Amino acid sequence: MSLVLDTLVRRARRQPNDIVVTDGLAPLSCLDLWLEVVKLSTKLVLLEIGPGPIAFCLENSPRWVVLDLALTKLGRLSVPLPVAFTEAQRHQALTQAGAVLLITEQPSPNDAGCERIMLLGRALYLQARDAVPVALPADTAKIIFSLGTTDQPKGVCLSQAELERVALSLVEAIGKDYAGTHRAVPPLAILLENVAGLYPTLLAGGCYHVPPPASFGLARPSAPDFDMLAGALAENAAPSTILNPELLRGLLTALTDQGIGLPTMFVLLADAFRSIPPRSDEAYVA
After folding, report:
1. pLDDT tens digits, residue range 172-182?
2. CATH of 26-158+274-285, one of 1.20.140.10, 3.30.2130.10, 3.40.50.980, 3.30.470.30
């Protein structure tokens, strides 16, 4: 079992009612989260999905967290894709990774007969793919895609041990008081939010706040509502978050204009964090 899952299980035994993930409306306790992970992983096993990477494209929510942890529990190589990818970019990423399945929140118009499973009261749609196998490092647990200067997806292969090593080092560096309560702003499909937001919070025994982007001014990421973001962060009062420089500048302006103060926060700038380096040239997918 991974360190993140082992930490969650031990906490669920000791403090089952501790709130560990919330979207602001429906909080999940440690026990709730672990039971949802077990339930979903069982459903996926019963579907008898063939070998190969499983991709998913979901908006930030507790459902994203449950699915990510369920795939980790199963030891399935996962490929989280940003919702902002175009159809062409998504297709290219799926092909590069050799994904055999795509899980989404909306059925594909070209695949009306796709499988459907329920997670936290809402449907997820599973679209099987005729994938060509891709040679990947043996211990790859996750392929994270980002867009290069040409807007073409580029994926890096990461092991679970690498992801958790970085997450644990962040907990040790900034302390459990800051790492223990986190407000998600960037998409979880981005490496930084996954490895520096979600995983450190779970390892620190904290609470991960992951509301839908529209609730804090990011319904349109290209045109943020900074006043709404400032108000949401002030109301939530989480001591840590991750922002890119553009969001930080807009947020500071909104805070000044509105006279809003935030609690002492640890803000990790996305541009100041470099992706985990691959172990070799082969750790990138072509």
Report:
1. 988 887 778 89
2. 3.40.50.980
> Mean pLDDT across the chain, nearest whole number?
89
* SS3 call for 30: helix
Residue 259 Ramachandran class (φ > 0 left, ψ -120 to 50 alpha, else beta):
left
Rounded distance between C-alpha atoms, residue 206 and residue 225, angstroms: 28
The span from the CA of 180 to the CA of 176, in Å, is: 5
User: Rounded distance, CA 161 to CA 169, Å?
Assistant: 12
For the CA atoms of the chain, what is the radius of gyration? 18
Q: pTM of the entire structure?
A: 0.91
Tell me if 53 sits within 8 A of 143, measured CB to CB: yes
Please report the DSSP string for 228-274 in residue order: HHHHHHHHH--SEEEE-HHHHHHHHHHHHHHT----S-EEEEGGG-P
Report the relative pairing of strands 78-80 and 54-57 from DSSP bridges.
parallel
CA distances from 194 to 19, 231, 235, 254, 261 (A): 19, 24, 23, 27, 27
Burial 72-91 (b: 16+ CB within 10 A, else e): bbbebbbbbbbbebeeebbe
**Domain residue spans in the chain?**
26-158+274-285, 162-272
- Tell me how far CA of residue 138 lies from CA of 41, 76, 160, 194, 279, in angstroms: 22, 12, 12, 21, 12
Q: Rounded to an integer, what distance in angstroms lies between the CA atom of residue 26 and that of residue 85?
A: 28
